[in-house]
Amino acid sequence: MPSSVRLLAVILAILASLCSYAYAASTELNMDTFKSLATKGTWFIEHYSPYCPHCIQFAPMWKKLAAEYESLETTHDFHFAQVDCSVQGDLCHQNNVQFFPHLQLYVDGQFVETFPSAQRNWEGLTAFIAEKTVQDKTDPPSANAYTPNEAGVSVDLDRTAFDAAKSSGKPWFVKFYAPWCGFCKRLAPTWKLMADELKGQVDVGEVNCDDHRDICTENGVAGYPTLKLFKDGVVHDYTTADRSVLSLVTFARTYAGPVVQRVTSAELGERIKENAVSFVLLDRSNNQNALTLVESVAQRFMDSMNFYVVTEQQAATQFNLEDADKPTIVIAKDGTRTTYKSQELVNTPAAQESLAKWIESEKFPLVVTMRPSNAADILSGDHIVALAVIQADDQQHHQQFRKIATSYVKQGIKESGARLLFAQMDSKIWGQFIQERYAIASSDIPALLLVDATKNTYYKQDVEKRALSFDDASAFLRAVEDLSSGKLVGTSTLSLPGKMGQFFTHGYDYVRLHWIIIGLSVAVLGVLFYRLRRQKSANRGSGLPYHRPLSMTEHKD
Questions:
Q1: Cα 44 vs. chain centroid, distance in angstroms?
Q2: pLDDT averaged over every residue in the chain
Q3: How far is CA 554 from CA 529, 545, 550, 551, 557, in A?
Q4: Residues 55, 92, 184, 209: which is the catalytic one?
Q5: Domain with CATH 3.40.30.10 in the chain
Q6: Contact criterion met (CB below 8 Å) for 97 and 34
Q7: Which band of pLDDT confidence, cut at 50, 70 and 90, is reported for residue 407?
Q8: Is residue 300 a contact partner of residue 337, using CB atoms and an 8 Å limit?
Q9: What is the CATH number of domain 14-132?
Q10: Residue in 237, 240, 235 with CA at minimum distance from that of residue 372
Q11: pTM of the model
Q12: What is the per-residue pLDDT across 199-221, written as a single tens digit (0 to 9) for each?
C-alpha cells in the first residue's frame, strides 16, 4: 500500500475516533433507536444538519453540555441525544422540526416542549437542565394515572366500548372498515404499525361495519375505510390521501395534543413565521376564564389555524399592546395582526359564539390554497370567491393574483360592498372539477373568475364581456363592485334538474317564511271571486227563462 494511502487511512481513522469522542455522552438516534431508547426516561435531543452554520457553531457547546451532565443519565434518567436530519429526514419531519439546531425535550417517549432558540446559550441551557432534573425521579407514578393505548394495539370496538370511548372525552383514533374491502385490507398492516407507534400516547380502535352497521351509520360512514379522531365531543376526519404510518401518526398526535399550545415569546415569533394563520392569546395574568373560552372554541377551527397562549411581557411588547395586563386575542397572518374587539373574555355561550364568528371571518390568509379538506368551506358561505386556476409552478400568475388580493385589502372591504375571499387551485389536481363546474378547459389556464356560491353562479367576464385578467388589478376590482351591484351576468353551476329543484326549494322557502301574507292574499282573492259570482247570479234574476223585449223593428214570423 503506498505511503500516501496509508497516511490518509490513519488520518481518517483519527478523525472518526475524534468524532466519536466528541459526542460520546450524546447518543446519535435514528428512527429505530428513537423508538427503542427515547420511550423511557427524559431525553434532551438536538436535531441538526451538518451543513448548518448555526449547528457547527453550537456543536462545541453541546459537546461540553453532554459531557458535564453525563452523570444525570444514572441519577435522573436524563439523556442527551442527537438526530442528523440530513440522514434521518423522516424522523425530523415526524418530530415537527422546523429549523436547525432544534432542541426538544421528550419524557417517556412523549414530546414535552421545544427549547427556545433565543435562550440557546450556556446560562439558558444549564438553567433549563436544572429545572428539569429538580424533581425526584424515584417517585412512583400515581396509581390512578391513565396511560392511553398501553399495549400499543388497535382495539375492536363494539357498541358498549365505542360509546364509552366516545363519551370519555379522551382522544380515540378509530378506523371504520369492512372485512371484504380491498382498501381496508391494504391499510391493515399500516394501521397496526401506527397503533404501536402511538403506544402510551393515543388510544386506537376499529369498528367492523358489517357487525356494527348502526354505529357506522350514526357516525356518517359512507365509504371504507373511514378514519376519525374523537376528542372532547369533537370529530376530526382524516381526509388526506396519504395513509402512510408517518402521516397517520402525525395527524393523531396533532389532534390528540393540547388544542391551545403554551409557547414562549421567542417560540411564538418562529411559529407565526411558519404558519399561514396563527391565533394568539396573550395573557400575563393567566386568566383561566379566557383560556377556557379559547379552548372551547378552538376545537372547531383546528383545521384552519394553530392556537397559542403566551404569558410573557415580551410578547405584549412584540404585538405593541398598550394594556399588557389584560388578556388579549390576536390573529396573525400575512405580516399583519388583527385584535379581537371584546371588553371581557368569559366562557359563556354568547362569548363563545361571538369569538367563533370573529374567527370564522378571519380564518383564511390573504390567498388560501384550495385542498380537499377546505374546498367545501371555501366554496360555500356568504362570501364571494375570487378564484385563480393556476399551475403549481406558475410563479408569475401566483404573484399577480397576490397583487390583486393586496390591492383589494388596501381598498377596503366596505368600499367594494362585498366580502371577498381569494383562493387559488392547482389546475392539475382540480382539472376535472373546473372543467365540469366552470367549463374551464386546460387550454384556458391560467384562468380567473368570481364565484357566488349563494347563487350557484360564476362569472368569467366583466360588464363589457372581456375575460377577467390577472394583468389589471383595478379592472378586476371594478368587476367585483359590478357583481355586488348586480351588473354582471353570470353562468349557473347547476344542471337543469338542479335549477328546477332550486326553483321549487326557493318557492317552498318563500311560502314558509311568508305564509301569513300569502294566506291573507288567498283569502281576499277568494272573497272577491265569491262576490263576483254572486253579483252575476243576481243580474240574472229568478230561475225562469229570460226574455228580451222585442223592439219596434222586430217582428215574429
A1: 30
A2: 80
A3: 38, 20, 6, 5, 10
A4: 184
A5: 14-132, 154-256, 260-362, 368-496
A6: no
A7: confident
A8: no
A9: 3.40.30.10
A10: 240
A11: 0.49
A12: 888 999 999 999 999 999 999 99
Cα dihedral: 295, 297, 300, 304 (round 10): -80
Strands 102-107 and 110-114: antiparallel
- CATH class (in words) of the domain with range 368-496: alpha beta
* Cis geometry, peptide bond prior to residue 116 (ω within 30 degrees of 0): no
User: Which residues in 49-171 belong to E strands, given as ranges?
Assistant: 78-84, 102-107, 110-114, 154-156
Q: Is 184 a known active-site residue?
A: yes
Domain 154-256 has CATH 3.50.50.60: no
- Extract the C-alpha cell encoding 83: 438526530
Cell of 364: 383564511
Fold assignment, 260-362 = Glutaredoxin (3.40.30)
Q: Is 52 a catalytic residue?
A: no
Give the tens place of pLDDT for each residue, 22-72. Answer: 344 678 888 888 887 888 889 999 999 888 888 888 898 998 888 888 888
| 3-state class (DSSP) for residue 191 | helix
Question: Alpha-carbon distance 196 to 194, whole Å?
Answer: 5
Q: How far apart are CA 288 and CA 273, in angstroms?
A: 27
Burial class (CB in 10 A: 0-12, 13-18, 19+), 424: buried
Question: CB of 25 within 8 A of CB of 70?
Answer: yes
Can you tell me the distance from the alpha carbon of 203 to that of 148, in angstroms, rounded to the nearest whole number?
Answer: 5
Question: Torsion angle, CA of 214/220/224/227, rounded to 10 degrees?
Answer: -110
Which residue do the cell numbers 390577472 mark? 470
Element (H, E) at 524: helix 515-539
What are 91's three cell numbers?
Answer: 424522523
pLDDT score of 90 more than 60:
yes
Look at 99 and 105; give whichever has higher pLDDT.
Answer: 105
Judge if the upstream peptide bond of residue 446 is cis by omega within 30 degrees of 0.
yes
Side chain identity, residue 500: M
Q: E strands, 117-250, where?
A: 154-156, 172-177, 203-208, 226-231, 234-237
